[in-house]
Amino acid sequence: MIFLYPEALWLLLSLPLLGAVVLFGTIRARRTVAMMVGSYRRADVLAVLTIKSFIVTILQTAAFGLLILAVAGPRWGEVSVEDERRGLDLVLLVDVSNSMLVEDVLPSRLGRSREVIRAVLSRFSDTHASLVAFKGAATVIVPMTDDPIALDLAVANLSPALLTTAGTDLNAALQMAMQAFPSGSPRHRIVLMFSDGGHEEGVSGTTASMLRQSDVPVWTVTAGTGPGGTIPVSQGGVMRTAEGDPVVVRARPERMAAIAEYSGGRNYDLSESTMVQRLMGDLEQATGRASMILFRQVTQDRYHLFVLIAFAMMVLSVLIQTIRWRGVI
Fold this sequence. Notes:
six-stranded mixed β-sheet, Rossmann fold, three-stranded antiparallel β-sheet, 2 domains, alpha/beta, 329 residues
């Protein structure tokens, strides 16, 4: 069992106070009844009153506790329902570090990523998309929008010059991507991530846990090849180390595959010739555009059961107080 609003469970601490109030009322009622009936059948009257008061106290306190549990939103059990979500909220998470300029994928890792992004946006014209760029830090370039012109202009200007922080921080990138989705949207949500996997540390345990708990899959596109390549520089030539050796950057497909696995997503290789076709087909299937009927598992709300039982207890407590017992009260 899980609760949608667990903070409401703190109200259960008020049950002892409620019991004390009812007990105080019972004591006062006994005194009043004792004064009214005098000595005639006083023992019988007080005995019945004590039993009634005890049962009513238990029922009313339990009913109040059940109402608190109902307010907390109890859920358990799963049922398959037809997925009513249509359309797609897509966060395009693009690595713009210098290593994305490597030309082991033509025209370059970043250039090929741009082409794939444009193909996706053209094919899914009703998609709402956001563009997030990252290097050593991450930033939202275009918030979630259905404006294709704004998105195309932003994609065209993707370059390492967008951000000044060096490196490739996959953790900051994924956290920023999750924050880019609007709250309350009924559309499907997917993060489409383009990166070579970075050449520093990979994904932390905290980020991996976040991805496992999130219901947003991250579809990763590995930009680059195993052998890798050198990074061209604007002055001509390639980037070199302090010793004068060319900097060779290899892709890290194992990191990208791990990110997809953590989140229940899918992994693609940008260098594959059929990659775009596979990506398009998977997106159509995931968003319900294909002819097949999609179903998803949802946890069922059970609050109404608690409300019904609480109502029955309250009705029973009223009947107990109303009906005469043993011809007394």
